[in-house]
Amino acid sequence: MTATQAPVLRREQVRRLDALGHAASQRLRAASFCVVLSGWLLIALTRFERMPFLAAVKEAKMRTFVTPGELLTIEAAVVHEGSGFTITEAKVSVGGKTKCNATLTFRQVPFPNDDLRGHMETMAKRIGFPQQMFAHG
Q1: Which of 45, 76, 89, 126 is 20–30 Å from 4 (CA)?
Q2: With contact defined as beta carbons under 8 Å apart, do 74 and 91 qualify?
Q3: Each residue's pLDDT tens digit, 30-69
Q4: Domain tally for the chain?
């Protein structure tokens, strides 16, 4: 797999992610979006065939919080894959200013059952994940 960049999330998608519980409070942690989007990137690249688990945070720089209503640019890219592990680089910025960036290592395993895969596909549809990323519809 070559380095791949994920689509930029729109503001309403960020609000939907928040509604799914990925933010701890009214002030959102930009770092959580680095982790969450990297995970979704890996799910997309495997077309919902493999499930990522955060294995390590190699390097992370958290500069500040982001607040509801800010238009976030969230980017994630695969920089290495091998031996069942994938390394991603992710960045969150607002108005061209970096809020957080991180190098993350994920372990990828098959989904343990169709129910969990179906649940993740439902969540993906709920947050407006691109439909072409679904292997099964």
Answers
A1: 126
A2: yes
A3: 777 778 878 888 888 888 889 999 999 988 888 887 777 7
A4: 1
> Nearest 5°: phi and psi at 29?
-90, 115
From CA 99, how far away is CA 134, in angstroms rounded? 30
What is the CATH number for 96?
A: 3.10.129.10
Q: Is 39 within the bounds of a domain?
A: yes
| d(C-alpha 41, C-alpha 26), whole Å | 25
Domain limits for position 46:
11-113
Query: Are the C-beta atoms of residues 76 and 2 closer than 8 Å to each other?
Result: no
Q: Is position 133 within any domain?
A: no
In a domain, 129, yes or no: no
- What are 4-28's pLDDT values in tens digits? 444 444 444 455 555 445 444 445 5
59, two tokens: 């390097």
**DSSP summary character for residue 34:** H
In DSSP notation, 85-134 reads: EEEEEEEEEETTEEEEEEEEEEEEEE-S-HHHHHHHHHHHHHTT--GGG-
